[in-house]
């Protein structure tokens, strides 16, 4: 199932680029400050998607970036986006199979992607690729449950068409963050673990919100009939409440240094 989920993003690459939220600028400043990278430092990005996080570092002047992306369409979009940046390299490969040719990096980053990699494989490989003073800056968008009337009505649709996606059964943000902390600590490969959180509200029209959901792997794996019925119902509910929906956004950043 993990392999199937991580491959669904490639089907909606352009929609992913258009509708997925970007990450707050403060997050990139925090990674730079913690890792103490310089403008000529080498950065490894695991699961770059369409280059949303890549752009955050480029905007700050850090352009020596090696991007690994499993999805061919996603990798193509990232290559096109940074075609003028000769020091940004994009490899269409899984991280597990990527041949690094002895490269060493000062910083490894991953944006809402590393959970698709077996931690018993992924973290040791990252540690091997890091310079002796290297750092990781892994971050994820964390789902925040909402309980206003609009979301309560939407939740009824999930119970009907996609009960496995009913978010009342999902871990809380605190549980998600603590689980990731535990995974990193149990590797015994990193030290000085630090967690930072960034939160804000985004607002979507009904069409935009459906487009956003359509980029989520678990929604894409629903049977087509159920997915279409779910999306139509959600759109109708949002329209009933005025045509817009507020979504709470939370990003958790995990910083650590190589042991």
Secondary structure topology:
Layout: H1 2-7, H2 13-19, H3 25-35, E1 43-46, H4 52-58, E2 65-69, H5 72-81, E3 88-92, E4 105-111, H6 119-129, E5 130-141, H7 149-161, H8 173-186, E6 190-205, H9 206-213, H10 217-220, H11 224-240, E7 244-258
Parallel strand pairs: 1-2, 1-4, 2-3, 4-5
Antiparallel strand pairs: 5-7, 6-7
Describe the structure.
With 259 residues, the chain is α/β, with parallel strands linked by helices. The protein has a single domain, classed as Rossmann fold, CATH 3.40.50.150. Helices cover 42% and strands 25% of the residues. It contains eleven helices and seven strands. It has a seven-stranded mixed β-sheet with strand order 3-2-1-4-5-7-6, with helices on both faces. Helix 9 packs antiparallel against helix 11. The two termini are 32 Å apart. Keywords: Methyltransferase, Transferase. It comes from Caloranaerobacter azorensis H53214. One of its GO terms (molecular function) is methyltransferase activity.
**Order of strands in the sheet with most strands:** 3-2-1-4-5-7-6
Question: Could you name the CATH homologous superfamily?
Answer: Vaccinia Virus protein VP39
Note poorly predicted spans.
Answer: none
CATH architecture: 3-Layer(aba) Sandwich
Nearest-integer average pLDDT:
94
How far the N terminus sits from the C terminus, by CA atoms, comes to 32 Å
The level 1 CATH classification is Alpha Beta
Secondary structure category? alpha/beta
Whole-number total of structural domains: 1
Gross morphology is: globular
The CATH topology turns out to be Rossmann fold
What value does the Rg take, in angstroms? 19 Å
Report on the biggest sheet.
7 strands, mixed
Order of helices and strands: HHHEHEHEEHEHHEHHHE
**Oligomeric form:** single chain
Number of strands: 7
Number of helices: 11
Helix content: 40-55%
């Amino acid at each position: 199932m993990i392999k199937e989920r991580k491959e669904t993003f490639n089907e909606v690459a352009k929609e992913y680029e258009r509708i997925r939220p970007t990450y707050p600028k403060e997050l990139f400043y925090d990674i730079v400050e913690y890792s103490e990278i310089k403008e000529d430092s080498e950065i490894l990005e695991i699961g770059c998607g369409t280059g949303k996080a890549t752009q955050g570092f480029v905007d700050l002047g850090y352009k020596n970036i090696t991007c690994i992306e499993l999805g061919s369409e996603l990798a193509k979009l990232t290559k096109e986006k940074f075609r003028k940046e000769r020091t940004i390299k994009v490899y269409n490969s899984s991280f597990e199979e990527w041949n690094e040719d002895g490269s060493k990096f000062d910083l490894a980053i991953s944006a809402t992607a590393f959970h698709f990699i077996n931690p018993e494989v992924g973290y040791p490989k990252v540690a091997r690729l890091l310079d002796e003073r290297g750092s990781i800056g892994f971050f994820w968008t964390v789902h925040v449950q909402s309980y206003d009337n609009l979301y309560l009505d939407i939740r009824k649709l999930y119970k009907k068409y996609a009960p496995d996606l009913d978010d009342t059964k999902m871990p809380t943000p605190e549980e998600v963050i603590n689980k990731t902390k535990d995974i990193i600590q149990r590797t015994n490969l990193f030290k000085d673990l630090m967690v930072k959180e960034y939160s804000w509200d985004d607002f979507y029209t009904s069409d935009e919100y459906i487009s956003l959901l359509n980029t989520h792997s678990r929604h894409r794996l629903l049977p087509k009939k159920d997915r279409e019925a779910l999306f139509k119902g959600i759109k109708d509910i949002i329209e009933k409440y005025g045509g817009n929906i507020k979504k709470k956004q939370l990003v958790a950043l995990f910083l650590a240094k190589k042991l």
